[in-house]
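Researcher: Structure prediction, please.
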Amino acid sequence: MKYVLYYQSADDVREKAPQHFAAHRAHWDAFRKAGTLLMVGPFTNPDEGAMGIFTTREAAHEFAQDDPFVVNGVVKSWAIMEWAEALA
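Model: Predicted structure follows.
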């Protein structure tokens, strides 16, 4: 089982994201180095949001709570969903 963290972008994501990207990247890098973040990135159209795939629900929740994109309003809402991967 994996956990998908889905971000819904704020209406002004294109203006806000560049201001907070360096801190956001440092945040995701810490989770990647810990081995709890497997993949992360925006959809092709940034207005449609982004997602990350985590090894635990707790890691996904911890990530979202302290992510500079969430804290600074780049993301207007987020949700964690269980994902039953079919191919490994």
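Model: Residues 7-45+58-83 form one domain.
Researcher: Thanks, that helps.
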